[in-house]
Amino acid sequence: MQASSPIRPPAPAVAGDGETLTTLVGRLVDDSRNLVGAEIALYKARGLERVSRYKSAAVFFVAAGVLALAGLIALLVGLILSLATLVGPLGATAIVVVAVLIIAGILAMVGKSRMKQPVLPEHGA
Fold first, then answer.
1. CA distance to 84, 114, 117, per residue, from 88 (Å)
2. How far is CA 13 from CA 8, 32, 47, 80, in A?
Protein backbone atom coordinates (compact mmCIF):
# COMPACT_ATOMS: atom_id res chain seq x y z
CA MET A 1 0.00 0.00 0.00
CA GLN A 2 1.13 3.42 -0.78
CA ALA A 3 1.29 6.01 1.87
CA SER A 4 -1.23 8.69 1.23
CA SER A 5 -0.05 12.21 1.51
CA PRO A 6 -2.26 14.65 3.31
CA ILE A 7 -4.25 16.93 0.95
CA ARG A 8 -3.28 20.53 1.32
CA PRO A 9 -5.26 23.51 -0.02
CA PRO A 10 -3.60 25.18 -2.98
CA ALA A 11 -1.32 28.03 -2.16
CA PRO A 12 -2.52 31.40 -3.43
CA ALA A 13 -1.03 32.30 -6.79
CA VAL A 14 1.34 35.11 -6.19
CA ALA A 15 2.71 37.40 -8.86
CA GLY A 16 6.14 38.90 -8.69
CA ASP A 17 5.03 41.85 -6.58
CA GLY A 18 2.91 39.88 -4.13
CA GLU A 19 -0.56 40.27 -5.75
CA THR A 20 -2.99 37.40 -5.40
CA LEU A 21 -4.84 35.77 -8.27
CA THR A 22 -8.06 37.44 -7.13
CA THR A 23 -6.44 40.86 -7.33
CA LEU A 24 -5.03 40.10 -10.78
CA VAL A 25 -8.42 38.92 -12.06
CA GLY A 26 -10.02 42.06 -10.62
CA ARG A 27 -7.47 44.23 -12.42
CA LEU A 28 -8.09 42.25 -15.63
CA VAL A 29 -11.82 42.92 -15.36
CA ASP A 30 -11.22 46.64 -14.70
CA ASP A 31 -8.77 46.87 -17.59
CA SER A 32 -11.27 45.09 -19.87
CA ARG A 33 -13.99 47.56 -18.90
CA ASN A 34 -11.66 50.46 -19.57
CA LEU A 35 -10.70 48.99 -22.95
CA VAL A 36 -14.33 48.51 -23.96
CA GLY A 37 -15.15 52.06 -22.85
CA ALA A 38 -12.22 53.44 -24.83
CA GLU A 39 -13.26 51.49 -27.94
CA ILE A 40 -16.82 52.81 -27.64
CA ALA A 41 -15.52 56.35 -27.25
CA LEU A 42 -13.31 55.88 -30.32
CA TYR A 43 -16.22 54.66 -32.45
CA LYS A 44 -18.40 57.53 -31.21
CA ALA A 45 -15.68 60.04 -32.14
CA ARG A 46 -15.29 58.47 -35.59
CA GLY A 47 -19.04 58.51 -36.12
CA LEU A 48 -19.38 62.13 -35.05
CA GLU A 49 -16.53 63.10 -37.38
CA ARG A 50 -18.26 61.36 -40.30
CA VAL A 51 -21.59 62.96 -39.45
CA SER A 52 -19.91 66.36 -39.32
CA ARG A 53 -18.33 65.79 -42.72
CA TYR A 54 -21.62 64.61 -44.26
CA LYS A 55 -23.49 67.51 -42.66
CA SER A 56 -21.14 69.96 -44.32
CA ALA A 57 -21.56 68.22 -47.68
CA ALA A 58 -25.35 68.21 -47.26
CA VAL A 59 -25.37 71.97 -46.75
CA PHE A 60 -23.56 72.44 -50.06
CA PHE A 61 -25.93 70.03 -51.84
CA VAL A 62 -28.95 71.92 -50.51
CA ALA A 63 -27.46 75.24 -51.64
CA ALA A 64 -26.76 73.77 -55.08
CA GLY A 65 -30.34 72.46 -55.28
CA VAL A 66 -31.81 75.84 -54.35
CA LEU A 67 -29.71 77.59 -56.99
CA ALA A 68 -30.63 74.96 -59.59
CA LEU A 69 -34.31 75.47 -58.80
CA ALA A 70 -33.90 79.23 -59.12
CA GLY A 71 -32.22 78.70 -62.50
CA LEU A 72 -35.07 76.44 -63.65
CA ILE A 73 -37.65 79.03 -62.58
CA ALA A 74 -35.75 81.74 -64.47
CA LEU A 75 -35.65 79.50 -67.54
CA LEU A 76 -39.40 78.89 -67.36
CA VAL A 77 -40.12 82.62 -66.92
CA GLY A 78 -37.90 83.36 -69.91
CA LEU A 79 -39.74 80.71 -71.94
CA ILE A 80 -43.09 82.27 -70.99
CA LEU A 81 -41.86 85.75 -71.99
CA SER A 82 -40.54 84.43 -75.31
CA LEU A 83 -43.77 82.61 -76.13
CA ALA A 84 -45.88 85.59 -75.03
CA THR A 85 -44.91 87.47 -78.20
CA LEU A 86 -46.35 84.61 -80.28
CA VAL A 87 -49.47 83.49 -78.39
CA GLY A 88 -49.99 86.12 -75.70
CA PRO A 89 -49.12 86.00 -71.99
CA LEU A 90 -52.01 83.73 -70.95
CA GLY A 91 -51.40 81.24 -73.76
CA ALA A 92 -47.64 81.19 -73.10
CA THR A 93 -48.20 80.57 -69.39
CA ALA A 94 -50.69 77.78 -70.15
CA ILE A 95 -48.32 76.10 -72.62
CA VAL A 96 -45.36 76.19 -70.21
CA VAL A 97 -47.40 75.02 -67.20
CA VAL A 98 -48.96 72.12 -69.12
CA ALA A 99 -45.56 71.06 -70.51
CA VAL A 100 -43.94 71.17 -67.07
CA LEU A 101 -46.83 69.22 -65.49
CA ILE A 102 -46.59 66.55 -68.20
CA ILE A 103 -42.85 66.18 -67.58
CA ALA A 104 -43.48 66.02 -63.81
CA GLY A 105 -46.15 63.35 -64.30
CA ILE A 106 -43.86 61.22 -66.46
CA LEU A 107 -41.06 61.49 -63.89
CA ALA A 108 -43.49 60.54 -61.09
CA MET A 109 -44.70 57.46 -63.00
CA VAL A 110 -41.11 56.34 -63.66
CA GLY A 111 -40.32 56.77 -59.94
CA LYS A 112 -43.44 54.85 -58.94
CA SER A 113 -42.60 51.97 -61.27
CA ARG A 114 -39.08 51.77 -59.85
CA MET A 115 -40.46 51.53 -56.32
CA LYS A 116 -42.46 48.43 -57.27
CA GLN A 117 -39.36 46.60 -58.50
CA PRO A 118 -37.85 44.34 -55.84
CA VAL A 119 -34.48 45.40 -54.54
CA LEU A 120 -33.20 41.82 -54.33
CA PRO A 121 -34.16 39.13 -56.80
CA GLU A 122 -36.57 36.61 -55.36
CA HIS A 123 -35.01 33.29 -54.37
CA GLY A 124 -35.87 30.44 -56.71
CA ALA A 125 -37.16 32.64 -59.52
1. 4, 39, 44
2. 14, 21, 43, 92
User: Tell me: the pLDDT tens digits for 15-27?
Assistant: 556 678 888 888 8
Give CA–CA dist 4/125, Å, rounded.
Answer: 75
- What whole-number distance in Å separates Cα of residue 60 and Cα of residue 41? 29
Report field, pTM of the whole predicted structure over 0.85: no
Distances (CA, A) of 117 to 88, 112, 113, 122: 44, 9, 7, 11
Distance of alpha carbon 85 from alpha carbon 91, whole angstroms? 10
